[in-house]
Amino acid sequence: MRLAVDAAGCMGHGRCYQMAPDLFASDDEGFVTIRGQVIEVPAGQVEAAEDAEGTCPEQAITLLP
Ligand code: F3S
C-alpha cells in the first residue's frame, strides 16, 4: 500500500502526525512534511495510515494500492 498527500489540500490541521507519528511529521509551519509526495506504507503501519486518511478534515490523504 502507498499513500499520497495532496499538496494543495493540506491545511496543517495536524491530525495525521498526531495520530500516526511514525508515518507523518510536521514542518515548521505545521504542514505535513510529505505534501505532494507518494510514500510506501510499511506493513506495520497500514492501520495507522487508514486512521490518518480518515481523520484528515481536508481529505488530503489518499491510500493507494
Ligand atoms: Fe494536513 Fe490533513 Fe495532516 S490537513 S497536516 S494532511 S491532517
Concise synopsis of the structure shown:
The protein contains two helices and three strands; from the N terminus they run E-H-E-H-E. The protein is α+β, with helices and mostly antiparallel strands.
SS class: alpha+beta
Helix content: 10-25%
- For the biggest β-sheet, the strand order reads 2-1-3
Small molecules (ligands, ions, cofactors) in the structure: FE3-S4 cluster
Termini, distance in Å? 5 Å
Number of helices: 2
Order of helices and strands: EHEHE
The biggest beta sheet is recorded as: 3 strands, antiparallel
Mean pLDDT over all positions = 97
Overall geometric form: globular
How many β-strand stretches?
A: 3
Percent of sequence in beta strands: 15-25%
Work out the radius of gyration: 10 Å
Low-confidence stretches: none
